[in-house]
Amino acid sequence: MLALVVASTFWSMVAYAGPLGNAVTLSAALDASAAGTTWVLASMSVGLAVTLLAAGVVADALGRARVFALGAMVFAGANVVCAVVGSTWPFVVARVVVGLGAAGMIATGLGLLAAADGDGRHRSTSAVWWSAAMGAGIALGPLLTGVLDLAGAWRWFYVGLALAGTLLYALAGRVLPVEPAAERARRLDLVGFTLLTAFLALLVTAIVQVRAGGPMLAAVLLGGSVLLLVALGLSQRRPQRLVDPGIFTHRPFLGATIAGLGTGLGIIAASSFLCTVLVRAVGLSTFQAAGVLAAWSGTSALAALALVRHGPRIPGRVQLTAGLVGVAVGLVLLAGVGDPVSAWRFVPGLVVCGCASGLLNAGLARQAVATVPGGLAATGTAANNTARYLGAAVGISVASVTAGTDLLAGWNRVALLAAACSLLAALAVAWLSRGERAPGVAGARTGTWRTAAE
């Protein structure tokens, strides 16, 4: 089961990061406009951000194994479409659906592992492997598309992803246990589910539209998302709700969620913008830029693996705080570049960010499950990752506005702003962790969790 969950995370991240390695070729092949190119690169992020939380809620209500298998099937089918379409918007829609399928696997994987083995040390080890798979997938995706691009075979990337999704679906039926109905959290709140999905869809679309150059449409979409958020809040006053509201008053859960948000606003947003800087200001190809960024993502995977033995001894809250502070230090090292600049100038800061990210991602995976009751493990994982991808969407949009026309000077501002976001998130996690006695295991595991009803 651990191997299956790790493989699903790895292939999801390969799919997520892949277009960074051949963005120019992909844009030309699909005849994409500037706005279309923005959507091509952002489409899977949109699918993940919009559906992760909903997938987690559905999984806790209807069964995690079912949602995992369905996610793998959707992932495979949507990648087949990506491999055969020849224009921008069908490709964008298919990539959004790829994100939906990946969300089904990401939201449920750690919850399935937690349900199978409640030992805290084993959960921590599982989180380390999950984190390593995430870093390795982000590192390999752009390199793989870059190599295929050199051979003029970019469509085979999506064929490979479809085959991987098919294999994951086949193995899910053999490996994953179907949870008894008694273990599921509650009946699904269809009204709340619909409003939540619609709210996130409008919000994320508005954020991406800012980058695509449509401020009026973005404002309309943002206004609609606010109305849907109000409606969602009103709907949760009914007896049947999406989740127990007590989860949002639980400090360790809030700390883990803020850490996820800080990760998106910080290192993920900065590294995504750095790819543009390396191509347009430094003069690298997208493939070469992906190789430079691997100093971050690859180091992250190696750092996570180094925690397999010692990670369980480090409290989860310490992993989050130290990881965020380390990322902030690395981002400061990445700032201060001038013209001309060599690509090697960025490597030391990326390595520091990678080491810190390995610790941070392992802590996020661990705390996402440990800070909620066992019946809401998928919801906890989904909430954490939703915060991460929403933070990334906001951070990348802010970076594009902050940078201006001088990319190198703009990069310095972006790096420092991302460092500030990481540091603020670290301070918030430290403040919310005051008085927490059980290292890495929140009240949901120690008996101090209290629902609103209690």
TrEMBL record:
Protein keywords: Membrane, Signal, Transmembrane, Transmembrane helix
Broad class of where this protein is predominantly found: membrane
Molecular-function GO terms, alphabetical: transmembrane transporter activity
Superkingdom of the source species: Bacteria
Membrane topology label: Multi-pass membrane protein
Transmembrane regions listed in the UniProt entry: 33-55, 67-86, 92-115, 127-144, 156-176, 188-210, 216-234, 254-281, 287-308, 320-337, 343-365, 386-408, 414-432
Keyword Secreted listed: no
InterPro entries hit by this protein: MFS, MFS_dom, MFS_trans_sf
Localization in the cell: Cell membrane
GO annotation, cellular component aspect: plasma membrane
Signal peptide location: 1-17
Key word Iron present: no
Domain Major facilitator superfamily (MFS) profile: start-end pairs: 1-437
This protein's name: MFS transporter
Phylogenetic classification of the source organism: Bacteria, Bacillati, Actinomycetota, Actinomycetes, Micrococcales
